[in-house]
Amino acid sequence: MKLGDIANEAYAGGPRPLEGIRVLAAEQMAALPFATQLMARLGAEVVKVERPGAGETGRQSQPAISDPEGRAVGATFLRNNLNKRSVTLNLKDPRGVEIFLQLAPLFDVVCENFKAGGADALGIGYEAVRAVHPGAVYLSVSGFGSGPESPYRDRAAYASIVEAMSGIYEYKRKPDHPPAANPVGALGDISAALFGVVGVLAALRQRDQPGSGFGLGQHVDVAMFDATIAMTDIVTNFYSMGIADEAAADVGIVETFAAGRGHFVMQVVRRHHFERLAEVTGNPQWLHDSRLASHAGWVAHLEDVLRPGIEGWAASRTSTEAAADLTAAGLAAGPSMTSAEVCADPHVAARNMIVEMPRPDGGDPVFIPGNPIKMSRAAEGPETRVPWLGEHTDTVLAAELGLGPDELEGLRATGVI
After folding, report:
1. What percent of the chain has pLDDT over 70?
2. Taking the domain 250-336, which CATH number applies?
3. Is the dihedral of CA 97, 98, 103, 104 positive or negative?
4. Where would I find the H helices in 270-385?
């Protein structure tokens, strides 16, 4: 799907559900920008506040492209900032803070993802915003939460840090191998983003419900560590049931296998699935082998019995062909796809799960994952490219606060914008 296109006529039946909701975001990197991009995709208007000069830290990530002025725009920024407007504002300058607090009452949602206490130190924390806008839904996303209860409150965090602390790295670690960092990309960031959006939507709903709290906002506080623990729920749940790692889980066959070209993954967790596996791979003897009479036996003899039989059958097939044959037999299987295969996959195209953003330097377009939320009565798209740094500063401040050209020039001259 190219930027500006309506993704699919099937989803173009009406306005998007968050139209009319306005979001003011002092954000950086991945977790909060992903959340606000999702809200924008659902129809919210998002104004992104960045520091003058360098912009938010995601712009400095690698790899990068160049904007029309030759400034670097990093991949982290490109993935998380479609459909937004960028305003530069120096929040270390009292006049910048004053402007932020003047803007806040014009928005339904105000959000930040500084390290815990950072927004308060700047003067734009929840209490400061609530004082000028009691109806604001205020979202904070940080590594370990904004409150005083966590012993880790003052620590900075990236996705890999909270993922490691969630226990999933050790749970999944293979014997004699070190734990692998970031095995699925930014799980720690995106899980926090999703819970942040859920919290914002719930708070907006509560604000608009008749009753004693009608019209009042609240502070939605999401810790990346909490979100990651929720996403890796097997770690704590299985531990409480006496299972400390994946090797002891005894859940059946959940493994990757080599085909003649590439690899595929298969999950066999029921006896009738195992029977179909034996049949389709030409290994009927497995059904009469006492060693393979239980899930524990499948795990114990995966390497010496099952893998040779499965991979011997798959040797004459590509990973896609092997997965298709297993699927046709009623088994859950899929190819382990390369990045090129994902980008060319027919499902991905049919569901509009890649957005192509043209590059200002004329290179091949940048691919950005599309919106996975498909709604029967809501339009999907059109999407707009990421904003260049400070691209909308003058138009937003003029329209929202009535600042004239001379005032804007004065703010620019003093480094406020």
Report:
1. 96
2. 3.30.1540.10
3. positive
4. 271-280, 295-300, 307-314, 319-328, 339-343, 346-350
